[in-house]
Sequence to fold (160 residues):
Amino acid sequence: MSTAEEQVSAGTAAENRKILGIPVPSLMRFIRFCIVGGLATVVDLAICFCLIHFVESLSRHEAVVATIGFIIAFSVSYVGHRYFTFRKGGSVLKFFAVSVFSYLIRILIINVLTAFDIRGFPPIFIAAVSVVFVTYFLSKFMVFKGTAKDKDGGSRKNAD
Fold:
């Protein structure tokens, strides 16, 4: 077998490996998604925490606080997912639509929790964690679908 054939065979073998039945490239992409999403969530929640605890006039307006956090964390999330998670250009408008959809689910959760007199930071945190999987799948299949960049700058068709 020639060196080029060995490289193609090794690349295919690596792409076909699975952990717990999940293809390794898919698992790595989800891990990158969690890292970027985690960073955006930390930015979002840090802003929300500071507004709830240090701006008295916002302390009982969780939906307003969550909106401010969402707006600021949006850019962190888009840039991170475009260049690190999915490694390809995606429609910023579609990503914004997915983000708004996730945001609306968050606001719904916050409103339900505050209706049960769960106030302050806990409903914001619970709502943020609740939308992770919805956001991942919508981003993967609607926003960043198609071809992805290899580490060396080339492009390849997504295997998953």
Summary: The helical segments are 3-16, 24-54, 62-85, 92-115, 121-130, 132-143. The first helix runs from residue 3 to 16. The chain has one domain: 22-145. Residues 28 and 100 are 26 Å apart (CA to CA).
